[in-house]
Amino acid sequence: MALAQTAPQFVPALPDRPRPARRGRDRKAEVLMPAPGRARFERADAPRVAVVGGGIAGLAAATLLAERGARVTLYEAQDALGGRLAGHRTRLADGSVVTMSRGFHAFFRQYYNLRGLLRRTDPGLDRLTPLPDYPLRHSAGLTDSFARVPRTPPFSALGFVALSPSFGWRDLATMDARAALPLLDVRVPEVYERFDDVSATAFLERVRFPEAAHHLAFEVFSRSFFADPRELSAAELLLMFHIYFLGSAEGLLFDVPDDPFPQALWDPLGAYLQRLGTDIRTGTPVHTVHPDAGGGVEVRTGTAADRHEAAVLALDPGALRQVVAASAHLGTAAWRDDVAALRTAPPFLVSRLWLDRPVRPDRPGFLGTSGYGGLDNISVLERYEGEAARWAARNRGSVVELHAYAVDPGARQERVRDEMVERLRQVYPETREARIVDARHEWRADCPLFPVGSHHRRPTVRTPHSRLTLAGDAIRCDLPVALMERAATTGFLAANALLAGFGVRGQVLWTVPRAGRSRGLRALAARAGR
């Protein structure tokens, strides 16, 4: 179904010269200028452009294209925008109507391009609220905190070692310093050439990281890719270390939306797109995309075949594989094989529990966990989300969310759910006395997997068709971005590529530095590579 047009078309004033978006506090963040061109399309020559997929990548592409005057049609298979961060309304056993989603996501301050997208409807990012800490707890009793860790490298790493109970100065002496030196100068894309054929686990074993630090500081990051670190490319792990630890001065703390994703993020952005004239068609899966003799594409849904001058495919790996496989004339044989080779990560489970009594007031809004079976983190939603806070206040309870990443595909869902609840009671013993008023569960398997040796085959933003581009967190872009920021960045890059082909200027983008920040540390790391 299509979202109704609720407001007249709005065309923002565009400067004659591109202005860099606000980038954060890091003076060494890098700018990526778009190709030169005119400011926007004239109404008479505005092309029709299809954007397939209404997640972060598709929303970024559609936003930029519409702002430049293109006539955009946004196709989304689900009934709401947001992709993997969408939400839906549900009624609980007590009669409350609440929003269920796939839960907690961290909006790091390094996510320049994602935050730039959100600023379209929230210039001051007032709908994001900071969490004061990001504690990581191991079942052995050790807990790491980032609240007092300096943000600027190398003081961030030194501060972490000084404050961490799981990684001390003595541990440095046990490490293989030569093997660890590449962490000091992660270069993109060279890091993939050097370390994509090594697993994250193998790299950590080579460096001889202490076991507790391995679990807390690295396994938590690797599992944020919904992957077992034994399968994950070490290049992706090093990239994460660079983005959050030694490559950026933005730090490891982050913000979260102050209300559920639809209300805080996607509903305002959808309304903004409609004011720009975008035709938003939710509940409309695209089955095939066919290039035509005129250089454009035909997009076929279950009820129509629409011709467009260009298109962006912003789909998760499974959906992209399906569309390409069904579109016989799309791309070259080699490109189609690379798309078919994209892998999907193992399933993950999100369980949200509405409890009849509160957790202890000192419990953090988010806690990363390791060593507690399949439990990867616990969120206490009323600490930061308005809807949950209102429910908790009315019922004198708590809204708690549990995540399990990289679950065995053969595991019984009910057993995984039960184990998660039991682990919650182990970590937060006060929940043993709580009655579960209601629960909702999201069991999904649609995130990208970045296995060892896969980088060279990942499809890029550009495709064999000059007017067809790809976007999403599975797409290779050879910049120091990951997760939601990779989705937003590739969405803008996909739009930039199409705009350049039409002679229209795209958007300025930002990233953390593409190499180590310190000249001395870069020289030291270079010695290790000889």
Topology:
Elements: E1 30-32, E2 48-52, H1 56-67, E3 71-76, E4 87-91, E5 97-101, E6 107-108, H2 112-118, E7 128-130, E8 136-138, E9 143-144, H3 155-163, H4 169-174, H5 177-180, H6 190-195, H7 200-207, H8 211-223, H9 234-246, E10 254-257, H10 261-275, E11 279-282, E12 286-291, E13 297-301, E14 305-308, E15 310-313, H11 317-326, H12 333-340, E16 343-344, E17 348-355, E18 366-370, E19 377-380, H13 386-395, E20 398-404, H14 413-427, E21 436-444, E22 448-449, E23 468-470, H15 483-501, E24 509-511, H16 519-528
Parallel strand pairs: 2-3, 2-15, 3-11, 8-18, 15-23
Antiparallel strand pairs: 1-24, 4-5, 6-10, 7-10, 8-9, 12-13, 13-14, 16-22, 17-20, 17-21, 18-19, 19-20
Uncertain residue segments: 1-19
Major sheet, described briefly?
A: 7 strands, mixed
Could you say which overall geometry the principal axes of the C-alpha atoms support?
A: globular
Helix count from the secondary structure assignment = 16
Separation, N- and C-terminal Cα atoms = 59 Å
Q: Which class best fits the helix and strand makeup?
A: alpha+beta
Q: How much of the polypeptide forms β-strand, as a percent range?
A: 15-25%
Indicate how many domains the architecture comprises: 3
**CATH first level of the largest domain:** Alpha Beta
Strand order of the largest sheet: 9-8-18-19-20-17-21
**Total strand count, please?**
24
CATH-derived architecture of the largest domain: 3-Layer(bba) Sandwich
